[in-house]
Amino acid sequence: MYEWNEMVQLMVDWIEANITESSSLLKMSEQLGYSPYYCSRQFNQLTGTTLRDYVWTRRISRAALELRDTDQRVLDIALKYGFSSQEAFTRAFNKAFQLTPAAYQKAPRPIKLAIRQEVFSPYHYLIKERDKMSKVHLQPAEIKVEFIPAHKFIGIWDLSAANFGEFWERGHSCDEICGTLESMSNHTLPGQLGQTAGWFYQNGQKGYLYGIPVSLEYEGPIPEGMECREIPESEYLVFFHPPFDYLKDNGDVMSTVEEVAWNFDPTGMGYEWDEGIKQDYQRHYPEGYGYAVLRPVKKA
């Protein structure tokens, strides 16, 4: 049922792996086993953009990260990402971000990077099929304690959303928000995983949040439409499942972890819940980290 979602995701993977090369639609289609026309049509249908435009925006965004994180010359980065000259790169960069590469390298600021497309996602497509020929072996949710120091959180808090899907259905632009936060990834709080979702509490009501944790000392710009809040230090109970097969096991893993997280009694560990001005965090990096729900606690 989702054959082409999976195939387009393979196209995205191929583009990311060959982003600095003179890749061609013909070469990619030959490796995937479909005609160039069919690949191009299906990519556009599922992503809403053409392959050519997607490659262009991803190249300019990846180049921006190198400008931010390295001291390479603008010309070298331009040539690496397939631009014929520094002038051509400057025109493209200015068109995408309304500033020059040299100005951005000198003083990085939040910009709206083009994010990697995800078209084969249980969040977006509510995939519930399972491989009926093999059993899914889930591990029980692990429970551990993690200390997170006082920090700032930059993002969006939405009281009308209860989960990831509802958050994006409320009119928030996933591409713009995630792209902007990606441009700030160099400010991520040490020890954390970057863009983070979760839950917060306000006047007895529970809402959903999305953003990035940064150090308490961060005094840089706050992207338009976002807020910056200080979050006190705290110990967290972490309900965790290690890396898993995203496409097969995502729903089961999330249910397993959340069933324990929302029904656990911390008094047996000498704690009590400490939600209020603090917030719950959700980490979802299936292939490399796994899935976790973090709830703040204090000594009982």
From TrEMBL:
GO terms for molecular function: DNA-binding transcription factor activity; sequence-specific DNA binding. InterPro entries: Homeodomain-like_sf, HTH_AraC, HTH_AraC-typ_CS, MarA-like, Reg_factor_effector_dom_sf, Tscrpt_reg_AraC-type_HTH. Residues 9-107 form the HTH araC/xylS-type domain. Keywords: DNA-binding, Transcription, Transcription regulation. It holds the Pfam family HTH_18. This is AraC family transcriptional regulator. It comes from Paenibacillus rhizosphaerae.
